[in-house]
Input
Amino acid sequence: MTSIKRDDSKQKWEETEFPLVCETCLGDNPYVRMTKEKHGKKCKICDVPFTVFAWQAGTRGRLKKVEICRTCARSKNVCQVCIYDLQYGLPVQVRDKILAEEGCKDAVVAVPQSDANRAWMTAQQERDIEQGKAITACVPTNSAAAVKLQSMARMEPRYERNLPKLCSFFAKGECNRGALCPFRHEMPRDRNDPLSKQNTKDRFFGTNDPVAGGMMRRQKEKAEKRRAELKARGGEGDERAVSTLYVRFTDEGSSSQRRIAESDLRDKFYSYGEISSVRMHADRGAFVEFTTPQATQHAIAGANRSSIGGRKIAVNWARVPKRGAVSA
Output
């Protein structure tokens, strides 16, 4: 719970009991211990003093601390440390671009950059929280946006982001600590590398973020490669099936490797719409065809990365090859 100071000398200073952080930033140690310093520094977005939490991010991780206040993080639904979206693990620029492209412009929160307007917005959010209203900003309002975000989501913890920083003495050839050095003994990146010029405000407002730019560029190249492959095979039009999805079975997290039957698939997907047919693809997956494309889209958004009978499944659109038979 966040509390805001209201006295004359500490107006709007924030105090919190726990930070709003992602699993990656917490690290791989389940017994993480944190230090807490009330009003330890100013938020890099709104300049309001707030409670600073610091901890060692895992067994091999470096010391991490929050960079922005909880109120700003909650307004954009991002981690207080890495400024990545908490639901999909994506940079703000990528998430907001997809929401805007898929007709969810009302879900994109434009945080004011002036002090007065930002203070007013913060006061409105605090009032909504006190009245028990949930903040639903930055959440997709249609299934098309949800499907696209899920296809790009990076929800698995990426603990390599917590590694110690580079040792400047090693780069100069002067480090004599050897294996006892708490920093990484690697040569630094090229000074012209855009990833070495990141800042918190660009990440938060979703502008000029090199990480987001790299992700969107790779996604575009991947789509162009798929279109080129389809064209080389003589395909025309959209490579997706109109109302059919493909369910891929995975063995991860399954000790018994239970066989999934057609009835299990019907029980899993019947709530999303009327099912036209179910075709099993050995024990690797299955094709599920709905009567409408909207039902297929809802099923992909709701069932992707879930499980059936203890076996995890991945759900995506089925593809239509040249001769018209549906294939994965």
